[in-house]
């Protein structure tokens, strides 16, 4: 639990570039990002990484939650930055294939609603923070 008692702290968690498997991006093209609104650690990391390579970026879709990021990514709108444990099998880590820089890790905290049923919430937190191949499955 974190200091508020309503979440699970995680010091650092890896993040990766995620896109639809058929997504392509020419080497000098502007990077279309699917991102959470600022302030967002994953957004900041992505922007900083792209800028350090000298490439340009554009927020092609702003999303409020993981479902939005996955839907936009599946639609081919752009590239999202997500923890590997949240990437379903129909999407892919495309960093190397698209010659994007390694993102590394960010501080990450999952917040919970104290009125939510605890067992499903704990299972979700476990799946995200401690992923195994069996926990990452195709969604919808």
Secondary-structure topology with pairs:
Layout: E1 7-14, E2 16-20, E3 31-35, H1 41-52, E4 57-62, H2 66-74, E5 79-82, E6 91-93, E7 105-111, H3 118-129
Parallel strand pairs: 3-4, 3-5
Antiparallel strand pairs: 1-7, 2-5, 2-6
Would you kindly provide a written description of the structure presented here, covering whatever features stand out?
Helix content is 24%, strand content 27%. The chain is α/β, with parallel strands linked by helices and 140 residues long. The strands form 2 sheets. It has a 5-stranded mixed sheet with strand order 4-3-5-2-6, with helices on both faces. Strands 1-7 form a two-stranded antiparallel ribbon. Helix 1 (41-52) links the parallel strand 3 (31-35) and strand 4. It is globular. The protein starts with 6 loop residues before the first strand and ends in an 11-residue tail after the last helix.
List the main descriptive attributes of the protein structure presented here.
single chain; 140 residues; alpha/beta; 5-stranded mixed β-sheet; two-stranded antiparallel sheet; 3 helices; 7 strands; disordered N terminus; disordered C terminus
